[in-house]
Amino acid sequence: MRFVLEQAYWVYVVSNGCCDECRTCLEDNTHALWYCDVARAIWQTDVRFNFIRTKKLSTFADLVQFLCLHGSSDLFAWFAMVVWSIWERRKRLRVGQPSWQVNEVVQRASELLHEFQDVQTPVRQAAVRSEDLRLFLVVFYMLSVRVNFDAALFENLGCAGIGVAVRDSVGEIIAALSQRIPLPLSVEMAEAMAVRRAVLFVQELCLSKVVVEGDCLRVVAALNSPE
């Protein structure tokens, strides 16, 4: 499954699904954050990631899982901050906002990581092994995510709107989207399109185990039906 610009391309949000940086490949999460020439140049500045670059990984989720299993906690934290910095830079450039240069991304990520670590309360090392804690947090997070979807019809405008909200284990919003679609034939059809978009959104976020919730009984019953 491909995400990001390629998905937007197919629903005619943008006119070109190519990567904004290299202009040669369709952009998905894995390309944007790992395989793009610009991303490669950033990762090559740190030799600690050499052991990953030799692997052929199909999705970004595979990349995260591999690093989680074979990398240290400190390397995982550094990886997460560099990923965020690459994504933030691409996002700013896409909407025309000022951003840092390619050769400044690693320095920016380092500053952000140190800033984050400076405000954290020290944890006693003997309390729990860092690998166990990280694995627990990943599993708990993935099993605790709930996804709510809904749809509304605007017949006077000849369109409908769908919305998706992703909540963590304490009910806080961690991701959301809304989308305008052509007016469907029925409320049930709109709700079905909303749950389809919710599932795609979950895949874009690299979440594999979630609870999907909606208020349309017919759609929910159809999803739960063994037929």
From TrEMBL:
Coiled coil: none annotated. Residues 148-226 form the RNase H type-1 domain. It comes from the Eukaryota. GO terms for molecular function: nucleic acid binding; RNA-DNA hybrid ribonuclease activity. This is RNase H type-1 domain-containing protein.
